[in-house]
Amino acid sequence: MEQYLDKKNCLSGNPITADIVISIGRGIKDKDYFDKVLNLADILQAQVVGSRPMLDLGWLSIDREVGLSGLKVSPRICLTLGVSGTNFHTMGLLGSKLIISVNNDRKANIFNIANYCVVEDVRKIIDDLLVKTSRKRFENIFDIESFLLKYFCKYKTNKI
């Protein structure tokens, strides 16, 4: 299993106490996009966690699994990318204050717990967010939250 723990801040902090968490699932699809998520997380000062398939692929270590048999997180902002939303995983996200979920499946269970639901190709969103954040400097959590809410408003995100 390839380890990233010392390569990125987003994998070396504590997801339980993090203000921002990015939870990834199988919808990420390939290793290149996993690496892009790590870059995005560092820009957004977020911790990366994931569902069981991310561990099975070797992309995340066991201490990054969120859900019934893993961590229970309660960040101010939780951005889920490509997460289908099995009950085993979502149980670990329920403490989040704000959940923004991106999935290309309109019927994905993750939308049942999300505050903002974006039905879109997660890879398109990741690429676009990287472009939009490449020159940004966020001073604090409020700047990041404001940016994310403004960004996702263009997708007319709301409960499905």
Automatic annotation (TrEMBL):
Transmembrane segments: none annotated. GO terms for molecular function: electron transfer activity; flavin adenine dinucleotide binding. One of its GO terms (biological process) is fatty acid beta-oxidation using acyl-CoA dehydrogenase. Residues 17-93 form the Electron transfer flavoprotein alpha subunit C-terminal domain. Pfam families: ETF_alpha. This is Electron transfer flavoprotein subunit alpha/FixB family protein. InterPro entries: DHS-like_NAD/FAD-binding_dom, ETF_a/FixB, ETF_asu_C. SUPFAM superfamilies: DHS-like NAD/FAD-binding domain (SSF52467). It comes from the Bacteria. Gene3D superfamilies: TPP-binding domain.
